[in-house]
Design goal:
The chain has 161 residues and is α+β, with helices and mostly antiparallel strands. The protein folds into 2 domains: 1-52, no CATH class; 55-161, no CATH class. The chain is built from 5 helices and 6 strands. The chain has helices at 17-34, 45-51, 69-74, 79-86, 129-133; strands spanning 5-9, 37-41, 55-59, 62-67, 139-141, 150-152. The strands form 2 sheets. It has a 4-stranded antiparallel sheet. A two-stranded parallel ribbon has the order 1-2. The chain is globular. The N and C termini lie far apart (48 Å). The chain binds iron/sulfur cluster. The site of iron/sulfur cluster has 12 residues, from loops.
């Protein structure tokens, strides 16, 4: 069929680590040989970091942040991304933002009847009135404009200038 794009939905999630590595290596070889692009859907943040050129973080069916892996993992801009990454064990526990784990309070709203404003507002420690009233759009944001700039859907993102 010679596809240009392959959507891989949790392709390695049920595999043990050694088989995961083999599959990831195979995917990377196929990408190089055939010029493929992947939309790689996963919950394992270590796997995502290893394979992705660009990462989109989703919360309740919406993309809340898009960034290159090094920018996202070292300096997440959306509060949900920050909470998500704070739960990842690190080989260098003193590094960057991972000093302490952020434990989110509250429940995930129903995707059938999502909130009008920001979908993360009920669980966000930075929320203000505007967050409940108005859904934030995905906008350019970055500590360093240019290469490290990403997209974030938040009225009060981390790393704001
Ligand atoms: S828009 Fe407001 S509630 Fe939503 S993530 Fe940003 S600060 Fe938190």
């Amino acid at each position: 069929m010679n596809p240009k794009v392959i959507v891989a939905d949790e392709p390695v999630s049920a595999l043990d680590v050694s088989i995961q590595a083999q599959i990831l290596n195979l995917l990377e070889k196929l990408q190089q040989d055939l010029g493929l692009s992947y939309v790689f859907i996963a919950h394992d943040l270590s796997v995502v970091r290893h394979i992705a050129d660009e990462v989109a973080v989703m919360y309740l069916g919406k993309v809340v942040e898009v960034a290159r892996p090094e920018a996202l993992y070292n300096n997440p801009s959306h509060p949900y991304s920050k909470a998500l990454l704070s739960a990842v064990p690190s080989a260098t526990p003193r590094s960057s933002h991972m000093h302490s784990r952020i434990v989110l309070q509250g429940d995930v709203p129903s995707p059938i009847n999502p909130p009008v404003g920001c979908r993360f507002a009920a669980r966000c420690w930075k929320g203000q009135d505007i967050c409940v009233a108005q859904e934030p759009s995905l906008q350019h944001h970055g500590v360093i404009p240019g290469e490290n700039a990403g997209l974030v859907a938040c009225h009060f993102p981390e790393n704001s200038n």
